[in-house]
Amino acid sequence: MKFFKQFLNTKAPSQSKLLDAALVLSIIPHLFVMKFYMLLYICIALIFIFKKNKHKSDKYILLLIGITLIGATFFDSYNLSNFSRIQFFVSLVSALLILALTLQKTTKELNIYLKISPALLMLLSFFFFDSITMLLYSVFTLFAFVALYMWGKMQSRLIEAVKFTSRLFIISLPLVIILFLVFPRISMQKADFGFRADSYSISGYDGKMRISSNEIRLSNKVVMELFFNDANISDENLYLRGSTLYEQDGLEWKRHSTDLEHDTLVNKKNIVEYEITLYPHGNNWIYSLDMPTQAIKNSKLNYDYTLSSDKPIYEKKKFKLRSALLYKLYSKNFSKALEVDMKKNEKTYEALKDIQKQDIPKTKKALLLLNFFRDQKLSYTLKPTGIDLEDFTDSFLFESKNGYCIHFASAFANSARMLDIPSRIVTGFKPNKENMIKNYLLVKEADAHAWVELYFDKEGWVRFDPTATAIKTINTLQNIENQQNSNVFQKINRYFMYTKYMINNWVLDYNRAKQLAILKKLLSDTLYLLQFVLSFIFLVLLVVIGFISIKNSRCDDELMCEMQKLLKILKKHGLIKEEHESMQAFLQR
User: Which of 115, 274, 286, 556 could anchor a disulfide with 307, C-beta 3.0 to 4.6 Å?
Assistant: First the structure.
């Protein structure tokens, strides 16, 4: 504590040292995404910068080393098309900027390029990170940059610069919030500035399923929390259904366009009771374990035994549900469950003819279909390659042989229909029991999954998970960080995860669509508008209180305090003390 107080009372160092501190703060995020050769270059550059006996040739030697190591870093990415990919381009610019500033540092000369380089490096780091950690670090770094600048300009103690910067940040908070709401964050995935963003999608659930060859990046956003009355639930029963998809329109699977005749649930056994804490998603769907036995308050049990809320869910809500883990679900809805384009996937149709010709029950044909998928030696990957979307099923099964759950589910559903077995795709979540803490289970967007239900006359709709046929499976489910026995910790952790979710949802993912949704609600909901206005007024009051409460420190030296007042008065009359002028010389002048 004594050291900390001494540090806060430190007088401002030289401009060069202040710039060094800013550079260190701005380079830290880049260290986490740099390849080995760039990290090696930084280590070598530091040796040259801190050398006592410097030579004119040092910067030329360092330049040669830098160009060589940068070349080695990007060697695998050298082709003309990659220069139009924004991630590659920004990585290259970042490396060249670090090369330039390290060369400048060897000369010990300050120039405009060095002074703006910390800001440039921080701006470039936003292209690599899209997380709460980076958000918090960016706010901290911005505060530090301003504090360092004010420290150098004020030539005061550090505590004075920190307090002045705090007041600036507090007073600017309402304006920052207004600008944030008015100008949504640009999504670099859809940016069009002459560059191509990397092709990828974020894991999650939206009630549809579109076949894509894009990479999937796992999201850690919290979707819901489950609390079971009995923890003895097996992993194979942790399927949370959200929607059933009957119709395939090109590359997209959709719900049936009209409500169908209600399915019939019978032989309900192994009833499990549980509570779902559902985080806001702005839609009507409610997730439930296969198979919910009844509707709950303010909800509807749909024809396919999915649940939907009467109103879109904009606030965190809790639901108590009952599901049957053993059941039979009968249906008469086959009009769309057998539609398949045989001509588009001729290879698959030909390969399945042997199974189709066999005079055996459809249940056995389904098991043979599972074996057929295993025989293709398919691999599970988040980065699929070589998939031809024009003839997807053929391409997936016989050419690319790699993909993630939507590829497996779509190919399996189509293949089943070729065997005259009605099929539908179910999308939802498949969490892992390993992530359970006692009776508590956290479900994230990374747990999003798609599987298939096939219909048999005696058994009804039966769940099949074709993704399990992959010979190589990457575990996409996220582990809960540390298991804790304390109920207090569980409660704190739940609210911590909720806070992370809200920051992710309303800050990192704030876009034009959410802006319009807020505007629409403000115009249509008087109570919401009143809450919004009162909240903003309350924020302004807090800002004013905070601004007033952070006062300038009292002077430790009474004589110096009086002298500072004198200098301010003289300054108004054009009498300014020079930086290196002594007080006696100034007063004499």
Answer: 286
